[in-house]
Amino acid sequence: MTMNRRSFLATTAAATAITGTPMILRAQPKEYVLGASLPLTGPFATAGQLVAPAFAMAAKLFNDEGGIAGTPIRFVTEDSGYVPQNALNNYQRALASEGKNMIGYFADSTGAMKLIAPELKGENARIMGSTSFASELADPATHPYQYLSGPTYQSQFDILLQNIKNEGGQKVAFIFSNTEFGRDPIEHGRKRAEELGLEVVLEESTKAEGADIPTHVTKLAQSGADHCILQGYVTGVWPQLIGGARQFGLPVKFKGTFWGMEKLIADRITAEAGPFLAGYEGVMPYRYFYDREDAPRYQQYAELSKAMFAGTPLENYMSTWAIQTMCGLEIAMKAFRDTAEAGQELTADNIAENLAGISDWDSGGFFGGPVSMENNAIGTGRVYGYNPEDGLFTPKSDWFTV
C-alpha cells in the first residue's frame, strides 16, 4: 500500500489521539525559542519595563508545564527603543542566530509588525504577536502569520460607541494622536456612530506628546459633545486633556481605549493632581489582575508574582500591558501545543492554521467567558470605570463581542 504525505499525517494524528503522545515529524530541537522586541528605552519605556517581567514569568510557567510536547522554551528579548527598524533588525538577528528553533516572535508596535510582515515568507515565516491592536493586522489574507490578543482599535470603538448609545449619549467627540495608532479607528468610528444615530461633532488631532492642551480643550468646549473618546495615547496626554476639561468646567464624559486604561497611571495622576479622573471610563479586553475570582490562570500568575517579584511593585499587581502580553503569549502557546498534539510539524503554516482555529477557548481568566479567534483577533471587551477613592477600575458594562 502506498502512503502519501496526507495519509501519513492523518495516520499519525490518529495514533496521537489514541495514545495521547504527540508525534513530531522532524527531530525535535533541544529547545524552542521565542524572540521579542520591547521598548525598554524611548518614549514608551515605562510600558516596556512593565511588560519585560511577563516574559520571565511566561518562561517559568510554560516550562513547568512541560514546554511544548516536552521541549522547553527560551525567550530572547532585545530593546527596540520603540523604533520599528530596530525591531526589524532584532528579528533578523534572532532568526539568523536561532534558525528553525525560533518558532515565534513578539513585536512592540504596529510599525514593527508592518515592517516585519514582508519578511514572514517561506523558511523565514514565523508566528507573530505584538502589543498592537491595529485593525489592518486582523486580515489573514494580508497578514497570515500575525495575530492580535484582543479586539482591534475599530472593535474597541464599536464597544465604546455602543456603550455611549446605551447611556443615552447624542454628541461624540474624537480626540486622537497624530500617529497611525491614533488615526486607526477614526474613519470607522465615524461610520459606526452614524449607524447608531450618534453625531460626531469634533475630530481633533493632537501631538502624541507635548500637546497644546488649552487649544484642544477649547475646541472640545465649542463642539458641545456630551462624550469624548480619547485614542492613541499611552501616558501623558490623555489625563492632561481630562484635567484641562475639568478645569474648564466641561461636563463631557471621557472614554479611552486600551492604552489609556492602566491603573498605575491613573493612580499616579490622582496622587499628583487630585481625583479629577473620577468618572473616566474605557474599554478593556481583559479582567484586571485583581479580579481573580473564578480566574485560575490569574491565580497562578499571582502565586508566581509573589515568588518571582517579591519586594517590587509587581509582587501584587500585573499591569494591563503585561496582561496583554501574557494573553498574546498564551495564545501562541496554545497554537504551538495544539500543533504538536496533532502530530504536525511546528511550521508557521501549521501553527497559523491552528491559531486561526481557536474556538470557544476558556482562557482561565483573561476574558469573561470562552472566546474565539475571528480574522486573527478576539473581538471581546467591556467598559470599566475608574474610582480615585479606591484606585480600582470596575466594570460598567457587560462583555461585548464584536
Written description of the protein model:
- The chain is an alpha/beta fold.
- Strands 5, 6, 7, 8, 9, 10, 11 and 12 form an 8-stranded mixed sheet that branches. Strands 2-1-3-4 form a 4-stranded parallel sheet, sandwiched between helices.
- α2 (45-64) runs parallel beside α12.
- It is globular.
- It folds into 2 domains: 5-151 and 295-371, Rossmann fold; 153-284 and 382-401, Rossmann fold (3-Layer(aba) Sandwich).
- It has helices at 5-19, 45-64, 84-98, 110-116, 153-166, 180-183, 186-196, 213-223, 237-248, 263-273, 296-308, 320-341, 348-356; strands at residues 32-38, 73-79, 102-107, 127-130, 171-177, 199-206, 227-231, 253-256, 281-284, 380-387, 392-395, 400-401.
Show the helix and strand layout.
Layout lengths: L4 H15 L12 E7 L6 H20 L8 E7 L4 H15 L3 E6 L2 H7 L10 E4 L22 H14 L4 E7 L2 H4 L2 H11 L2 E8 L6 H11 L3 E5 L5 H12 L4 E4 L6 H11 L7 E4 L11 H13 L11 H22 L6 H9 L23 E8 L4 E4 L4 E2 L1
Parallel strand pairs: 1-2, 1-3, 3-4, 5-6, 5-7, 7-8, 8-9
Antiparallel strand pairs: 9-10, 10-11, 10-12
Family: Belongs to the leucine-binding protein family.
Protein name: Amino acid/amide ABC transporter substrate-binding protein, HAAT family
Pfam families: Peripla_BP_6
